[in-house]
Amino acid sequence: MAHDVFISHAIEDKPTADAACATLEARRIRCWIAPRDVLPGMDYAQALVEAINQSRVMLLIFSARSNHSPHVRREVERAVSAGIPILPFRIEDVSPSPSLEYFIATAHWLDALTPPLERHLKHLAETVKLLLARIAKPEPVVDEAEAPEAKGTAEPTVDEATHRPAPVGKALEFGIVVRWGGRPIVRLAAVFGAAAGVVALIFLLVGWPFGGGEGSLLPAPTPGASTPTVPPAHPTSAAATGRPSATAARTPRVSPTAAPISTPTPVERSPRVLWSFKTSYSFSWGLVVVDGVVYLGTGDNYVYALDAVTGEKRWGFETGDDVESSPTVTEGTVYIGSDDHYVYALDAGTGEERWRFQTGAWVQFSPAVADGVVYVGSGDNYVYALGAATGEERWRFKTGYEGAIARLTSPAVADGVVYIGGGDDYLYALDGVTGELRWRREMYDNVFSPPVVVDGVVYAGTWLGGLRALDAGTGDELWVSSPSPSGSLAVADGVVYIGSDGGAYAVDAATGEERWRFQTGAYGWASSPTVADAAVYIGNQDIASNDYHLYALDAATGEERWRFQMGSQVVSSPAAANGVIYVGSQDGYLYALDTTRVEERWVPERPTESGP
After folding, report:
1. Cβ pair 57, 80 in contact under 8 A
2. How many C-beta neighbours within 10 Å does residue 533 have?
3. Which fold does the domain 5-187 belong to in CATH?
4. How many CB atoms lie within 10 A of CB 11?
5. I want to staple 379 with a disulfide (CB 3.0 to 4.6 A). Which of 275, 285, 405, 600 is the partner?
6. CA–CA dist 447, 443 (Å, integer)
7. What is the edge-to-edge ordering of all strands in the sheet holding 426-431?
8. Which of the listed ranges 42-46, 180-184, 370-374 does the model predict with the highest average pLDDT?
């Protein structure tokens, strides 16, 4: 499994480590944590080493237990030798032992010594996002015997193309010091530098052999032609993805290998921008359009209502913390959660508060409203049922997760039953009136995407266990399919559409067979898809990716219709209304795009290399 962060912790600190993992993954930062991500039958030590080598950052949960843990020390030592930056997250006021101090003494620390833990976890998530955005994946470390000793000290440099620091102990802008393993990297740089000097001298004497000019080994490019970069297809085997095969013996895992694969076209067709709206921070994971108004929450603590035609702000309501929940709007009321632990009911026309209800932790997912009741999950491990008119609690249900902070999904309500995924790897079906458990089904991994109920079938995605279809009445599994969704699902016309590593996927809702896939120019997470007007709209959420496009794909074939260049990651699920797509970016901009006015834009030609 591709991941960004390896979480190192002592077994006694597992609740805090799980809470950190849930916080990072809720913000689309991929984590590896033991024992959750150790595949059955795999050697434990081998799994740890491979996971560390494939990570980009190590998060160290630092406490008195981890300070004296030989296992943690070996993990930290391996990260340093592999050139992985280490970010200590201190949860106890202790000094590092000499063996750990040797490796982390120069690293910037994040302290989480004072309650509440949530506030420190949010700061941790923002720090990790900044760190991932500014570092390149480390190069393999060369053993000291394989490279000659380098003389002197290399000065840290910055890659002009990516604006990311080179892997040499570079201090980042926000104060995190990246440790890259010391001398082996310097020696490797010396070898490459010497080789580059020889090659450059040859080129000066005989000319560039690959450009297309006179004396070139390759023909010159044809004027007007463009060369698209096509990423490799998404791996579908368990060996390629690192994901387990079907976890339930009775349920076949559908192989997606025969599905057609589409890739970005070399000519860009883009819709016209009607308007844009700028906030001081990034958007939540979703927004809605109801009766000519766009409703959304943002990281600047506000809920906004914007005119869908002009983009002008109608009102803004300030909560006590970030708003990462998506709004639900019905019967003139906006229901939304906030990281300040409250569920809010706001007047849709004026933004005035009608009521608020306090839970025990943050509320990061959308409420569901049915039959005069608001259903919502909280980080305190509870599912709440509240009166839609007054906010009065009707019932609450405790899930089986025992960690510090749970990651409950948004609920789905159908035929008087509430379906919700828990952080304990179970999907729950609860009676909407009483809150009593109807059934629960083990999903064999964290239920990552909110369930969707269509025609008596519940569709839900897990972290590693793929996309699953269950009978809504009994919870029995119908089928399991790869890959695993990276966000919410969209079900339309007998097809389940998901975003996953590197693109969009269409899966037959009845059989789980993959119909098509579309590979974007990135290999990280994709946003949640939206289906409208026979098109699928999806973007990229990968922090390290430079593919900041929103894509419009043909819902039947997966072929690209057009793409739109965003300023950063596409963090929100697009919303569609009256031929307009509304989508938000990590840079704080919300765009309104006219899908009926798409203009063709040619990709610039590659420059032609000339001989001497």
Report:
1. no
2. 12
3. Rossmann fold (3.40.50)
4. 13
5. 405
6. 7
7. 412-414, 417-421, 426-431, 437-442
8. 370-374
